[in-house]
Amino acid sequence: MRVAILYHPKLPHSQELAREISAFLLRRGHEAWLGSSWDVPAIEAQLPGSDLILTLGGDGTILRAARVAVGSNAAILGINLGRFGFLAELQPEEWQAGLCQALAGDGWVEERMMLQTEHCREGQTIARHHSLNEVVVSRGRLARVVRVDTYVDGTLLAHYVADGLIAATPTGSTAYAFAAGGPIMPPDLRNILLVPIAPMFGFTRPVVLSEGTEVRFVVSTDHEAILTIDGQFDLQLQNGDEVLVQSSECTARFLRLRPPSYFYKTLSQKFGELRSPWLTNAADEPVEQRQSPASCTPC
């Protein structure tokens, strides 16, 4: 097996762990190469022929890997060295056992929808991008709204006047779209989620679109507006610019070692469970030992 190990260049522990994993793989007869997750040209040069991509960082490192692996058959296995780690499969202390499991073929591949975006100006496409989480058209540094006419398959949906508008995948539904009030969607769905950011006019609720839909944003602004891809880089938008968003033919491939129901367990762990102050987990103590409201000490 040929394994790419992408480390976070700003985390010294990430590079140390990358070298440790590389030595582990080489001792077992596999091929491994290391690279900074920020060095896209170098990754693109070495990625062909790779079977597995190990990411050593947070969710941002996984997002970078998913974009650079577009068109590749390599699956991503994330080892979480970040704060949230919603997309990662393994914690740092689990890497050796998890990697042995993966090398033995004991896992399954999860495919997740991606978006393809075209940035157009005066009828000409000036840039194309892929994203795993979301595409955002929004205001710039000044706290002033942008106006975004939004068309769905050529039909006007709404004139949005807002801080911005998010087009997200089901993967991105747990990211910026969730913070802006959107619903959580299971990752195996193939829909485009539209979520306005602090809207003054237009739909104030999120809209879920089918996979084959083409969304066109027409931007009206007399100040600064930006197009952001996966929250990791942005491009300046001018008045009259158009942004076309649709599902990509490419998918992000993840190697999973947990059962398919892992998503809901991760939701519970990462976002936290709502609990009554009178209840504890059934595993914490026997039912007869739990304190009832009647026996609580008065405040």
Describe this structure in words.
This protein has 299 residues and is of the alpha+beta class. It has two domains: 2-106, Rossmann fold; 116-249, Probable inorganic polyphosphate/atp-NAD kinase, domain 2 (Tumour Suppressor Smad4, Sandwich), CATH 2.60.200. The chain is built from six helices and 16 strands. It has helices spanning 12-27, 40-46, 59-68, 95-103, 176-179, 262-271, and strands at 2-7, 31-36, 52-57, 75-80, 108-121, 124-131, 134-139, 146-152, 155-162, 164-168, 191-197, 207-210, 215-220, 225-229, 233-237, 242-256. The strands form three sheets. A six-stranded antiparallel beta sheet has the order 6-5-16-13-8-9. Strands 12-11-10-7-14-15 form a six-stranded antiparallel beta sheet, with no helix packed on it. Strands 2-1-3-4 form a four-stranded parallel beta sheet, sandwiched between helices. A hairpin with a 2-residue loop joins strand 8 (146-152) and strand 9. The longest helix has 16 residues, at 12-27. It is elongated and about 60 Å long.
